[in-house]
Amino acid sequence: QVHLVESGGGLVQPGGSLRLSCAASGSSVSTMGWYRQAPGKQRELVGTITIGGSTNYADSVKGRFTISRSNAKNTVYLQMNSLSPEDTAVYYCTFAGSIWGQGTQVTVSS
C-alpha cells in the first residue's frame, strides 16, 4: 500500500510563493496530482502529472502553478507563485487517483 506524506504548506503573503512536496512510499509509480479544498467549498483539482511528465492544470492556476516530479525519489512537487487569498486551502496529494495524502494547509494572507 502506497503512503503519501506531504510537506511545505504554511502562511504566505499575497504575491508570494510556496513549494509543496509529496513523497510516496514504496517503488510503485503512477500518475500523481494535487487537489485543494477551501473552507466551505468542494475539493477541486489543481493539476496532475503522469509518469512521463505530462501535466494538466486547472484554469485557475495555469501560468502560476507548476507540477513536477522525481521518479527516482517517487516525489511530486507543486510550485505555487503569485499566490492570492483565493488560493487558501488544504492541499492534497494523490497517487493513481485513488490514494490520498493527509493534506497540508496553505494560507495566503497579509
Walk me through the structure:
By secondary structure, this protein is mainly β. It has no helices and 11 strands. The chain has strands at residues 4-7, 10-12, 18-24, 32-37, 44-49, 55-57, 65-70, 75-80, 89-95, 99-100, 104-108. Strand 4 and strand 5 form a beta hairpin. It is globular and about 40 Å long. The model has no long low-confidence stretch (mean pLDDT 96).
Low-confidence stretches: none
**Spatial extent as radius of gyration:** 13 Å
Query: What class would the helix/strand composition place it in?
Result: mainly beta
Mean pLDDT: 96
In whole angstroms, the N-to-C terminal distance is: 40 Å
User: What general outline do the C-alpha atoms trace?
Assistant: globular
Tally of individual helices: 0
Series of H and E elements? EEEEEEEEEEE
Strand content: over 45%
Helical content stands at: under 10%
**How many β-strands, per DSSP?**
11
Largest sheet: 7 strands, mixed
Detail the topology: elements first, then pairings.
Elements: E1 4-7, E2 10-12, E3 18-24, E4 32-37, E5 44-49, E6 55-57, E7 65-70, E8 75-80, E9 89-95, E10 99-100, E11 104-108
Parallel strand pairs: 2-11
Antiparallel strand pairs: 1-3, 3-8, 4-5, 4-9, 5-6, 7-8, 9-10, 9-11
Compose a concise summary of this entry:
Helices cover 0% and strands 50% of the residues.
Question: What structural keywords apply?
Answer:
seven-stranded mixed sheet, 0% helix, mainly beta, single chain, 110 residues, four-stranded antiparallel sheet
